[in-house]
Design brief:
The complex is a heterodimer of chains A (about 240) and B (about 325).
Chain A lengths: L5 H4 L1 H8 L5 E4 L5 E4 L4 H26 L3 H26 L5 H6 L1 E5 L7 H9 L1 H4 L6 H9 L6 H6 L1 E5 L23 H12 L6 H9 L2 H4 L3 H16 L3
Antiparallel strand pairs in A: 1-2, 3-4
Helix pairs in contact in A: 3-4, 4-6, 10-13, 11-13
Chain B lengths: L2 H23 L11 H17 L4 H18 L6 H19 L1 H24 L4 H4 L2 H10 L2 H6 L7 H24 L6 H23 L3 H34 L6 H34 L6 H21 L9
Helix pairs in contact in B: 1-2, 1-3, 2-3, 4-12, 4-13, 5-10, 5-11, 9-10, 9-11, 9-12, 10-11, 11-12, 11-13
The chains are: A mainly alpha (about 240), B mainly alpha (about 325).
Membrane topology (chain A): Multi-pass membrane protein
Keywords (chain A): Membrane, Transmembrane, Transmembrane helix
Subcellular location (chain A): Membrane
Chain lengths: ~240, ~325
């Protein structure tokens, strides 16, 4: 275990402040930083549209069945209509860990600002205030608020203290090309180490030309010709990983 | 420690934790398996912190972060007993809340009942006033509904149980919908709640005044007095919840507006929960008691007055004395 100089320990948070991205960091009581990725307007609109379709289908089916029950059916129908209209989202969000069917399909989830699962109060607040977000027509207020807020919150989210985030999916282990491992010829800072590993891990997502170009930036300090820089970086990454 | 070694040493733990999480997420975890959950979760958080500190690769950190996130979700889930909470809220929480929020409640009540009574008296005195709010077709509709003569022919007595159910459903849908609107529109700096409180107050007042003036008072008042105790207070409280939201935006004090709004929304939504409870009672009374024709109006007035007293006593006295903790 190598001791880390104290200055390095604070580096990640400083870097984060400089990064221009929409990630939302939550410090938990355990002292770790959770990263939430708020979802923008488009996936949320799509999720809402899917939910709208589902709700429409439920209501249609219900009215056909209840039509046979006469007046009693009409009464039951009004209650069910009320439930589907006002409580569909709330029930799904609270009982299914922040996911209505539409959000499930779009890979979204509702959480409190602190990353905890959404509860009755917050879910009810955000879904009742949807009424205001829809004003004056077609979700105008909600859209304006969503587009101008750094975490894409609509008014209901602001009041309820909730956040719509992407559900994290487990990624597959990236493959670093086989080969020797070696030490870097100079001392790498923590962020440089991570950048290097990131480069090695994301190889499959980059074209060969782009890889060569990126690695070429480091050809001079590594003291190798440009076309060999990529292989060199990979072996340094392997060395950092300690895979062999 | 190199990353590879670190992964080798702990990956079994992570897999175990992940399997436990999966069980918890599907709600199928056994109590025995969860005994170590807190410790495992803390352990994982420690591993994540170590991995970040040592600059391990993004893939590993992402993976651990994903696990930590899922653990966080399970660890901080709200597992309260909804039933016990509801009973506690109805018995003590709701009246306590109303007394604590007396400012917005008083404002909303003054707006709503003030406009209702004022408009009622005015329409009673000046007959034409009703046509400023309602068009003649609606007025004659109202008159037909509460016409004492029509009633004797048996329009209401024809209503059977299924009709009662239909009206119950309708009242629930309609009234709670109105209450939700009254609350939610308070987010527009309180203007929406203000509008709906005044609008509903004026409307109901005008109808009441008009029907009293043309001599339908017995049918009308005996019908509305019972559920009115619950319905009217519920509408006023929904307005109070909305006004509270609006006030937080207008006068956030030393907080930021978004923060003030978030703090105000908590008691507001609790008020709305109480409103829902009251409106369900109101719908029940309206559908199954107010519409009953077997009782004489005198009994209805007595029951109605008793219900009003009950509601007032509930908000004044309920939840004042705390019982010893169980």
């Amino acid at each position: 275990m190598q001791p880390t100089p104290p200055s390095v320990a604070h580096e990640p948070s400083r870097i984060r402040q400089r990064l221009l991205d929409t990630r939302h960091h939550v410090e938990t009581p355990e002292g770790i930083d959770l990263v939430l990725r708020p979802a923008g307007a488009l996936p949320r609109i799509l999720a809402f549209a899917i939910d709208l379709l589902i709700r429409g289908a439920i209501l249609l089916l219900m009215f056909i069945i209840l039509g046979f029950l006469g007046q009693f059916g009409v009464g039951l129908g009004s209650i069910l209509f009320f439930l589907v209209n006002w409580w569909y989202m709330v029930l799904f969000e609270v009982l299914r860990q922040g996911r209505s069917p539409g959000k499930q399909i779009m890979g979204l989830r509702v959480v409190h600002d602190d990353g905890t699962p959404v509860g009755w109060g917050a879910s009810l607040t955000r879904n009742l205030l949807r009424f205001v977000d829809m004003l004056p027509f077609g979700y105008c207020l909600g859209l304006i608020s969503c587009l101008s807020h750094p975490s894409f919150k609509r008014l209901g989210d602001l009041a309820a203290g909730t956040l719509v985030v992407y559900r994290e999916e487990n990624s597959n282990r990236p493959l670093i090309p086989e080969g020797d491992s070696e030490r870097a010829p100079f001392r790498l800072s923590l962020n440089e180490q991570r950048a290097l590993q990131g480069f090695a891990e994301r190889q499959s997502g980059l074209s060969a030309a782009r890889r060569t170009e990126l690695a070429g930036i480091l050809a001079e300090p590594l003291d190798v010709p440009e076309e060999q820089a990529e292989a060199r970086l990979n072996s340094i990454a392997r060395g950092l990983l300690g895979a062999t | 420690m190199k990353q590879h070694l670190f992964e080798q040493r702990h990956s079994a733990d992570w897999q175990r934790f992940s399997a436990l999480l999966e069980q918890l997420e599907r709600g199928k975890a056994e109590a025995k398996a969860c005994e170590h959950f807190a410790a495992d979760y803390r352990h994982l958080c420690q591993h994540l912190a170590l991995a970040e500190e040592r600059g391990y690769s993004s893939h590993l950190i992402d993976q651990l972060q994903h696990l930590a996130m899922r653990g966080h979700q399970q660890f901080y889930r709200h597992r309260s007993h909804l039933g016990a909470q509801l009973i506690g809220f109805i018995l003590a929480g709701f009246p306590q809340l109303v007394r604590r929020e007396w400012r917005s409640v008083l404002a909303a009540c003054l707006l709503f009942f003030g406009s209702l009574i004022g408009m009622g008296l005015l329409t009673w005195q000046f007959p034409e006033l009703i046509y400023g709010l309602l068009d003649p077709a609606q007025v004659s509709d109202m008159e037909r509904m509460y016409d004492p003569d029509a009633r004797r022919i048996g329009r209401f007595s024809e209503r059977d149980a299924a009709d009662d159910w239909m009206m119950f459903g309708f009242y629930i849908m309609n009234n709670i919908g109105i209450a939700f609107q009254t609350f939610a529109s308070g987010l527009l700096f309180g203007l929406g709640s203000l509008f709906f409180l005044l609008f509903n107050g004026l409307m109901i007042g005008a109808v009441a005044g008009h029907l009293t003036r043309i001599g339908y008072s017995e049918t009308f008042w005996s019908f509305v007095i019972g559920h009115g105790a619950f319905e009217l207070t519920a509408i006023a409280f929904a307005g109070a919840a909305g006004l509270k939201l609006g006030w937080a935006l207008l006068a956030p004090g030393r907080l930021r507006r978004s923060e003030a709004l978030r703090q105000a929304s908590k008691p507001s939504i609790q008020l709305v929960a109480g409103v829902i409870f009251f409106l369900i009672i109101a719908a029940f009374i309206e559908a199954f008691w107010s519409s009953m024709t077997y009782t004489t109006p005198t009994i209805k007035f007595i029951v109605g007055a008793a219900l009003w007293l009950l509601v007032i006593a509930y908000f004044v006295f309920a939840g004042r004395h705390r019982h010893a903790p169980d």
